[in-house]
Fold:
Amino acid sequence: MNTSTDRIERQILLKAPRSRVWRMLADAEAFGDWFGVALKGKRFVAGRHTQGHITHPGYEHLLWDVLVERVEPERVLSFRWHPYAVDPAIDYSGEIATLVVFELENVDGGTLLRLVESGFDSIPAARRLEAFRMNSGGWDQQMKNIEKHVASS
Structure:
């Protein structure tokens, strides 16, 4: 684990071809299935927002909203979002969003998925540590989730 306060880094070897892993990332509906967001009928398009309600119990009232930055087929998907933006009474739109980057690489035995979420040092101090902590644990779980979905697809 990276000890930086500004970024979270994870990687996982997925025992599947890069094309299958890419579908789990770049197909918004498939992404939503493993990530826990209702994205039926949605797409990831660079320069556009993608939104859907979170499906994780207790968080269904929250709208997941990302601004897609890059979609480079079978290589990179990135988006910006407001991490751990879970209080409906707070307007997070004035905050600088963190950048989430997924990168794929062919390796012996499958596909290496690298994830970096950066920009936490720009989040207001009052919620920075909690957002970092919650997303850090969240990415641990999401790496397990995508591994299960890739294996079953």
The longest strand covers residues 63-72.
